[in-house]
Amino acid sequence: MSLTTDRLEMGPVAGSASAHSGTALADPSAPLSGVPYAGLPDPGLPAPRPRIGLATRRSRRDRLAELAAQKTAAGAGWAIVVILAGVLVFLLVQGWPALAAGADDLPAHASDFWTLAGPLAFGSLWASALALSLAAPIAIAVALAITQYAPRRLRTALGGAIDLLAAVPSVVYGLWGLMTVAPLLARVYPWLTAHLGWLPFFAGQPSASGRTILTAAIILALMVVPIMAAVCREVFVRAPASSAEAAYALGATRWETIRLAVLPFARSGIISGAMLGLGRALGETMAVAMVLSPTPFLVTFHLVESSNPNTVAAFIAQTFPEAHGLETSALIALGLILFALTFAVNAAARRVAARAAGK
Amino acid sequence: MSTQAPAPDQMSLSTSALLPTPAAAPDQTSAPAFAFAQVAMSASSHVPAHAAASPGGRVFPALTGARPAWRRRFANRFAAIVAAAGCLAALIPLGFLLAAVVSRGAARFDLAFITQTMRGVIGAGGGALHAIVGTVFITAATICFSVPLGLAAAIYLVEYGRGKLARTVTFLVDVMTGIPSIVAGLFAYALLSLLLGPGVRSGLAGALALSLLMTPVVIRASEEMLRLVPDDLREAACALGVGKHRVITQVILPTALSGLVSAVMLGVARIVGETAPLLLVAGFTDSMNLNLADGRMATLPVYIYSQWQNKGLDAAAYDNRAWTAALLLIGFVLILNLLARLAGRLFAPGAKRHARAS
Q1: Which CATH architecture has domain A101-358?
Q2: Are the Cβ atoms of A91 and B25 closer than 8 angstroms?
Q3: B152/A75 Cβ within 8 A
Q4: ipTM of this model?
């Protein structure tokens, strides 16, 4: 590949060569699609004499076009850099005033910005951690089932069905979670507090509506599973087949083969998939905003009570439509925190994945 | 087998042909004799400990005969059951979700829903025409922003990119993929309110936010498709003395066309269900707005949210409209995903065959 692109790099030279065979490529607009030799002269005819004047003119035009193409492509690359720098700069500029704002100007009458941001950041991390701890075992099981257990014909169908989970819009998850899942779980939660109430997570008065942080985490988990399962599938498939065959040859059962020859190779892939899923859960907005019934400034580890911590993303979505002035600034600053959080998680995931690939 | 050692991949191919397929692996209790023979063999024939060491160098007790056979069989069965249970845990909610959307969305799935707006509607009746039109307009504007940019960036990464800028762009595309959608909305708001003053709401602002989400998807997917174009096509065209830009426009892009179409569709499928950024910068309205540049513009996802959020007296009518809009939206996303997959498949097999032949 690198060899090829090295050769391709001689763009200007190739361009001038085409210009010298000037009349050979009689019609430059003739489509060469798929048939790269379509423009060649018939070998039976005598080669047309190159016409110098025409050739120089074309050469210049060709070189200009080549330059333009190269600059356009590189410009698109630069545009990506500029856009992301723009995201950072505009969020900073617009969010900065909120850091100095007082109780009168901030949403929910917070005394200062950090009293507002702290509990929300906790809520985001707590909900995402819950979602991930629910989703990770399921995603690994799904990936194992697809790559190791399912018969070949079932694999594509199963993979497609799991990918379908990722295609459902988050607002539909929110609607479904709110109208169908929450009422269902509201009947389960009293049982949980009655029998598992000795665990601090399930202590307290169970919510009658079911719109608790556990419900939100379950919905989030459904959205995280396809992302993590996709990454896990990829690394499970890449585990060397010869090791698995060696394990089978030693009389290992299938589960022993998986433990011996698949999971050890996939560890960092699983971690990076989990982190990508965490990034998705942290940024998820609508499902949480619709399902959760939040209490301002609350920090609690209780899962099934009717008062719940809110998440950063959901708070922004709920508050923004009616916000103005410094309130908007505060929400933009919250967005910046969310961006930094997801960026850190995603960057860590990529680093783990890159280290695994380079190993 | 000849005395010549076959190439590694050939060997693994031939051995896997000799091995029992996973479906007939020794754990099948439907063939108990075979299973017992396997277990007995591994238990009695003194497999040396180092032979059963895992890749980490750790001795794996299961294969040294130290672990009773019933336990190994139980663990094996248990693992299979857990894998199946994991699939069910993901698929059953999906089934319930689709069933709920279809059954509850059917109530208002009628002609009025796609021919009327919500203008002046209180209670039952009305439709989502303005939201459908808004979604189409904003999606079209987003495509206009992000497809040229995404395609050019993908061409840069595949055909030109090298060195520091290419590495930076690759990294930043990864970062962009992970941007939470609501942050994209805040960015569009921050940018436009700096230019046009605070409180800006328009379809164009929504399209700007969505482009931030769609561009990385288009770049990633079309990068993959462009890399599938076999190198011999590039080399052949270059050997004919064709300029590189012409190789790209007349050889590479036409070859990858259906793959690129699939990349764009994947991008559209990614953004068509986005709610949060549109809620922030495109807002919601009950009536039709055909002007992208001015005023609030309703979209299907925000329509779902607002029907739930601003319920009137006849709550059931609002709920029904929300579910029907959800049904339309899911249907649209699924069709797009399906078409993208079909278009991708149209392109990929031929290219792969070509690559293998070379």
Answers
A1: Orthogonal Bundle (1.10)
A2: no
A3: yes
A4: 0.78
